[in-house]
UniProtKB/TrEMBL annotation:
First and last residue of the signal peptide: none
Pfam families assigned to the protein according to its UniProt record, in alphabetical order: Aminotran_3
Record organism: Citrobacter amalonaticus
Domain of life of the organism encoding this protein: Bacteria
Protein name (Swiss-Prot/TrEMBL): 4-aminobutyrate--2-oxoglutarate transaminase
Keywords for the protein's UniProt record, in alphabetical order: Aminotransferase, Pyridoxal phosphate, Transferase
Cofactors demanded by this protein: pyridoxal 5'-phosphate
One Gene Ontology term of the molecular function aspect: identical protein binding
Transmembrane segments: none
Known catalytic reactions: 4-aminobutanoate + 2-oxoglutarate = succinate semialdehyde + L-glutamate
Gene Ontology process terms (BP): gamma-aminobutyric acid metabolic process
Similarity remark: Belongs to the class-III pyridoxal-phosphate-dependent aminotransferase family.
Amino acid sequence: MNNNELNERRLQATPRGISVMCGFYAERAENATLWDVEGREVIDFAAGIAVLNTGHRHPKIVAAIEKQLQSFTHTAYQIVPYASYITLAERINERVPIRGPAKTAFFSTGAEAVENAVKIARAYTRRPGLITFGGAFHGRTFMTMALTGKVAPYKIGFGPFPGSVYHAQYPDARHGVSTDEALRSLERIFKADIAPDQVAAIILEPVQGEGGFNIAPVEFMQALRTLCDTHGILLIADEVQTGFARTGKLFAMEHHNVQPDLMTMAKSLAGGMPLSAVAGRAEVMDAPAPGGLGGTYAGNPLAVAAAHAVLDVIDDEKLCVRASVLGQQLVAVLKNACENCPQIVDVRALGSMVAVEFNDPGTGLPSPEFTRQVQARALEQGLLLLSCGVQGNVIRFLYPLTIPEAQFRKALDIIIHSLTQ
């Protein structure tokens, strides 16, 4: 069995709508390293799209899953509950930056968490409207596609989408959208599309993921909090990609000194197991009636066990601190590369949520072509990188925060060579 054979079988067995980036197939993985079915070794700077902040197969996570396997794998929490779900909720409630007592409910995917946050917000406010932002990514279900601010490839051919969803501008000084202009775009929505007293929630990523790792300015987030308080609107922070130490804090909202009413989380919550959550103010979380929230696999005990271990690893190995240290090292390399890589127009980072943006030096236009070239050069040297951005001209770096120092330095050398060769 080799990569080419598997690729032929994939094309016959699975639909084209499930796109696949890499031409090789994983056989095993350890921490920040992948090996394919032909024995090739790759440094993983994708981490399952930000799922593996604690690396592939962390021993503590593997041990936690193995221990749970010896007890039970599924009861459906809503039918027969179990203590580990409750204790995980308690641990998260203690650590989320939310005003007042918090409660947490578990689901399986990030999109599911966002869907349920919308349900909770509407149940609490008795309002229909939702405001999100251009460049946002919130998922692939119908409600989360409506919230997502990027057409290709997520929305093409799938409409119509749920109504009462409006898109404001996300602040992005690099592309001419100031904090003031972003706030004015919200006021235009209130004037032209929906009255503020009909808006249930404003939802945003503190750092946009798919949108290009755009970082919300502190003053913008604080202004949103004031705006929401003025009009009785809930503020939902989508921390699916930013959560669990990636930005140098457990949650990115901690950088803004702003407390949302609801938060969604998934990805690195369970270190590779499918688990998501909505946490929020207790009175808001209690708005849906009994039976209004849940799911057959929501809060699966194996995934819950893994999440307990993830929180332990983040604390024991000081991964928030390590995220800041590694991010600083990578940013220094990228900024030094600017002298020999005229395509670089911006380097931005919050902890280890790092991105570099490319334009064509001649035209000044976004260059997805150069982005793909850098990715290809890196992969030839054994480093897996992901792109993002509405124009596809940004590379994001999502290495496990547990990556060994020597391997990280090797990856930095590959990045330098890929940018400047």
